[in-house]
Amino acid sequence: MDQIGQTKLERSRKQRTKAAARRRFLYAALITVLVLTAAALLIENFFVVRELRVVSTSPFYTADQVRAATGLEIGQNMFSFSEKEIRSDMLRKLSYFSDVRLKKIFPSILEISFEEIPGTLYMEVAGATYILGPDFYVIAKALPVELEITPRAYLITRRVMRCVVGEPIVFEDDTQLETLEQVYRVLERYGEAENMTFIDIQNKFKITLCYADRWDIQLGDAMDMEYKTRMLLQVLKEYTAEDGGTIDLSEVTRAIVKQNQNLGS
User: Fold this and answer.
1) Do 224 and 188 share a structural domain?
2) Which of 12, 184, 230, 245 is the most exposed place for a label (fewest CB within 10 A)?
């Protein structure tokens, strides 16, 4: 074969190679488009919310109220929302919740679980009842029935300057909050806060507690609260659940117990 023939043959081979490469590219592009289209259709029509499954129970909210607080609708795409944003929104709407957990169970279930703020304190301000969270934020304006659901101590204070749901409680006298912190944190640490019927901090030098609606406890001031609490628990071990009276811890070094006194006197 002469030089011209070889050149034509080589050119023809290159053309066939390029044509095959173009075909492979077109086939690959077509397959990619088909795959992406199928994936998009699958995501749009298959990965959609078909169930909002509430796995925790609440005495304050029904399952329907919890579902409504998500802001989601059945049929909504599973990839169209942020769990973080929904969690934040739910905590704002459902003030008794301390935490919310959202779990996507593919292809079509959103599982909702939560924890509620434990029993803390409630107080009356301008004729209304408000519940405080562990951080002394106002978490809700409560109805009497809500106070029966979770044990909470009644907080007695002097004048309140500001009481707004979602904000910290503000007293006219800032030292009242300091006193409350000193007293409540120790009771909480020893697991006794929920056993208190009331906490009276109107006078920071004559703090009064009521334990289980049976014992009036005179603390004096909030100094040595840790020691006073341990002493109180030691005293209570010596009595039965039916006993009651007054326990004076104000002298710190000893507890003066008067049994069978009228509570609240």
Assistant:
1) yes
2) 12
| Tens-digit pLDDT profile for residues 11-60 | 666 666 766 667 777 777 667 765 566 555 555 566 889 999 999 999 89
Integer Cα distance of 209 and 200 in angstroms? 6
Report the C-alpha gap between 36 and 238 in whole angstroms. 75
Assign residue 75 the CATH number of its domain. 3.10.20.310
Structure tokens at 162: 């500001």
Q: How many structural domains compose the chain?
A: 2
d(CA 250, CA 160): 26
Q: Are the C-beta atoms of 77 and 65 separated by less than 8 Å?
A: no
Task: Locate 134 and state its tokens.
Answer: 């562990």
Same domain for 126 and 110, yes or no, is no
How far lies 203's CA from each of 12, 131, 162, in Å? Answer: 104, 22, 20
Helix (H, G, I), strand (E, B) or coil at 231: helix
Question: At 171, is the secondary structure helix, strand, or coil?
Answer: strand
Does the reported pTM lie above 0.85?
A: no
User: In the chain, where does DSSP find H-type helix?
Assistant: 3-45, 63-70, 83-93, 144-149, 174-189, 225-236
Query: Which 8-state DSSP code applies to residue 261?
Result: P
Question: Which 8-state DSSP code applies to residue 118?
Answer: P
